[in-house]
Structure formats: structure tokens, C-alpha cells
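Rotation project, supervised by the postdoc (A.L.). Task for the rotation student: set up a whole-complex structure prediction and record inputs and outputs verbatim in this book. Inputs entered:
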Amino acid sequence: MTDFLQNCIDGVMFGSGYALLALGFTLVFGVMKRLNLSFGPSIMLGAYAGTWVYLNFSQNVLLVVLVTVMITVAVGIYVERLCFWAVRRDATIASMVSSFVIWMQLEEVAMHLLPERTYPFPAFFTSTVIDIGPFFVRSEHISMFLLTLVLLALLHLFLFRTRPGLAVRAVSDNPLASRYMGINSSNVLFLAFAVVSVLGGLAGFLILSADSQVTPFFGLWATFKGLIAMMLGGMGSLPGAILGGLLLGVVEANAFWYGGPVVRDISAYLLLFMMLIVRPGGLVGQRIVAQQQAAYERV
Amino acid sequence: MLNDYLLTVISNIGMISLIALSAYLLLISGEISFGQQAYFGISAYAGAIATTLWGWPLWLALLFGSSLAALAAGFVGLLTLRISGLYFSIATLAFAEMVRLSLFKLSYQLEIDGELIGPNGAEGFGEIRWIFDNDVSVLEYTLLIYGILLLVLFCLVLIERSRLGMIFRMLGQDPLLTRIQGLNPVRYKVTAAILAGFIAGLGGTLYAHSFTYIEPQIFNVMLGVHALAYGLIGGLGTVLGPLIGVAIDIGFLESVRVFQGYRMIVFGGLVAVMLIFMPRGILDENRVYRLKNLAQRWFRA
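Outputs recorded:
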């Protein structure tokens, strides 16, 4: 029982990173109803640029954070303009494939920047183990968790307390109606991409610095963890993304403890597959699916 | 001129074309699958086990592997009937990753000629020696691959010209319209999934025997997404589309060695720009239609 609870604590800590990635996916998917596969790789390129600066110029961690986030945003905007803004609105598959080939491109750029397989990534916090009763927590996980909470609060403020945030929500709710209200959906898309890239860059930095290394597999890893967490929680739902991320973290931590790395990955995918078959809307998104179903029946 | 290296590239194009065709079949019937590599992998393992461990002839192994792949595809097709769009894509991705990860746990070895042979988890499955044991040259094997590819293409052309193909495309354009026509979308969705699984399976067994070594890592999601991309690059208007996509990626870039190391930077950029102007690929429905008209006029004149 103690093991199980310990795993849950670890899972929640790490799941907060997944939650941030899933939020990125949900926000962008909500606004444009198209899938951006190169979200993970753009974070990876940002992190690679950060590592490159760390190795060649300066040991200043704040500078690394800044470079990581800035490059992630730049790449995010590049992807948005090339794969989503320029491609016809109704060509959803074309956008997805386009974002996929750009993923390959970004990976190659990253490999030119840092050709080795692994690089050390600067840790933001010193690593100590804190005992709480029978449990112990790593301090960098706590700080990652707390910073995630801060980021979530900021995102909430942006979405629910500012006018641009309102526009983002309006477009994702009903693109046609929001156009009648005079909202420029192209600008909103751009804004959403920028916000999500900032979020993604910070999430990438937090996850990597808790791991203290960066590898070329991070792009694939981030894209698919984010996707899984989003689908688990429910596509298009913000609380769903957070819940999905935490659930994924908890399940993975337990499966890893009891069965090893292969079982951890299988259990995550099995959970997702089952969820999609039994309850496509995920934990909280069932309402969205029901709405679509109702609209379909009405036609 | 036709050296072994070139032949390997050519046969590689043929085998990857089969998985691209399977993704294409699902694309035209309106589903985006991230998981065709699962059927490719299932068949690669099953076919290779059949020839190396059980001593079956290749044609029987080919049939066995592909049928098993089709069975799995039909099973997934039935399970995913209720979902479509991105839900379907992610469900197929989850299934494919489960298959790949299960292969890491698969260990089934028999002693043949004093050696332990068979799939062994992460170490993979080597010594798939059917080609050597039967003295099949690279050229002959390439011809076999292309024979099968041509057969599949022929069947697909027949399907596209038939009522079934029409229904697939209608399903892809508008599932509601299909229902209004009094057709049961469920039946055709599962049919498309099974056919696609079988085609991917053919490629899988051929692949295992061509490379003589397979491991779970080959059948990762990259293979599936590439297969999907080929159809879209080449065009969704004709079965030749996926082949064009594969030929452009593997053939063109293998031959142009100047881009070494910058391959994906150049290729990725080119494809992204191309998709802006041709969102349904080089040979999309309109262009195929116009080409057909042109050809007809040409023959009449």
C-alpha cells in the first residue's frame, strides 16, 4: 500500500508535466480543429538551442530558460504559418501531414545543432530528497509541480480574464459565430500558437531539467505523451487535459514499479485504447462527443 | 547497371509501397490510420516464423501472415466502429504501439541446425534464411515483390472501378450520405479495414524475408505516419498516388546524395510548400479526372 501511494505521488508530480503538454494540444486543437504533430519537436528544438547556449556560452540557467522558450515560440510560429495558416482551412489531413514533415525537418536541424545522442540539461533546482512520513519526494519534482500550478493559474487568468483569451475561447467554441462577432480567427490562431509555445517551452524545460538530460527522442516522446494525456482527459477540454495528464502519470508510475519500462508503455496505450472504445470523450469530454453526435443525428 | 544496392532500394520501394497503399485505402474511405505498421509488423513476424521455424513455403507464409494481419485489422475495425476522425487515428496508434511493445515480450525460439532461432524480444528475429536456403537471387526476389505489388494494384484498380470503390469514396466524402443511400457504413468500414490490413500484411512478410532480420523497433509509429504521408504527397485521386510518394521519398532522395545530412530539411520544406498548393497531393481527384479526359481525347483523335 505504501508503495502504491508512493507511486501515486511520483505519478502526480510527473503527470503535471504531461498535463502542460496536453494543455498545449487541447488549446491549439480547440481553436483550429487540426492536429499539430510537430508540437513536441518544436519544444525539442527549443531545448536543444537552450542546451547549445548552456554548453557553449553561459552557465546561466535563466538564460537557458529564455532561449528555450524563445526558440520554441519562433519554431511554433514557423509551423503555424507554414502548415496551418497557409494550407486551405478544410484540408485537415494536409495540415497534419505537413506538420509531420516539418517534424522531420526540425529533428534534422536539432541533430545538426547537437549531433551526439545525449546531452546534459541544466537542472533548475538542486536535487534533494525530502521525507514526509513514510514517503519521500524529490525536491525538483515538487518545484516542477508547483511551477506547473503557477503556469496553470496564469493560463486560467489569460483565458478567462482577458479579451484575447475570450477570443480564443470564442473561436474554439464556435468559429462561425465568432467571425460574425468580428473576431479575426487567423490572428487568434497565431496568438494561440504563441501562448501554447510559451507553455510548451516552459513545460519542456521543466521536464528536461527534472530528467537532467536531453535526447533526440524527446520530440516524439513529448508529442505522444501530450496526445495520450489529451485524449485520456477528453479532446478539447481544459480540465480534461490536466486530469488526463495526472492519470497518465499515476498509471505509468505504478506500471513501472510493478512491471518495468515495457509494461509501463503498454499500460498507457492499453488504457488509452480502452478509453477511446468505451468512452471516446475521455474523462470529462463526453459532453463534446454527445453534442457532435446530436448535431449529426439532427441533420 | 543493376547492382545489388540499387535492387535493394528498388525492392524497398516496392515493399513500403504496400503499406502506403494500405494507408491510402483507409484514407480514401475517410479514416486516418496511424497504425498500419502494426499489421505490417504482425505479418512480418508471423510470416518469418512460418518459414524459418515451421518450414512452410513462402507463398503459404505470405498468406498466413497477411491473413493474420487482416484478422487483427478486422478486430480493431470492429472495436473502433463508433469512433472516427482524430479519435480513430489515436486509437489505431495506441493499438499499433501495443503490438510493437508486445513484440518486445515475444520470445519463441526453436533449435534448428543446432542453433536457437526465432524472435527474442528486443534482440529481434534474425536468420530468416528463406532466400538463401532456396537460392533466390536479389533480382528474383525484387521481381516477386513487384509481381505481388502489381497484383495488389490490379485488384485495387478493379475495386476503384466497382461499386465497392464508389462506396469507399462516398464514405470518405460524407458518411451521412452513405447512410441516406441505404447503405450500412459499418459493413464497408470493416471491409476497408480488413483489406488494408491484408495489403499491409503482404508487405510485412516480404519485408522480413528481404532483410532477413527484424526487430520490434522497425515497426514504430514513424513507419505508419510515413505510409500515411506517402499517399497524401503522391495524391489521393488514384492508386498510383502512394507509389509516387514512396518513389519520391526513397528513390529520389537515395539517388541525390548531395543532400546528405540535409535530406529532411530540404525534403520536409519542399513537401510542406507543395501541400499548400496541392492539399490532396500531386495526383488528386481533379487532376486524375482531367488526365483521363485528356487521354480519352488523345485516343479518339
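Student's summary: Chain A has a mean pLDDT of 86.
Supervisor addendum: The longest strand of chain A covers residues 129-132.
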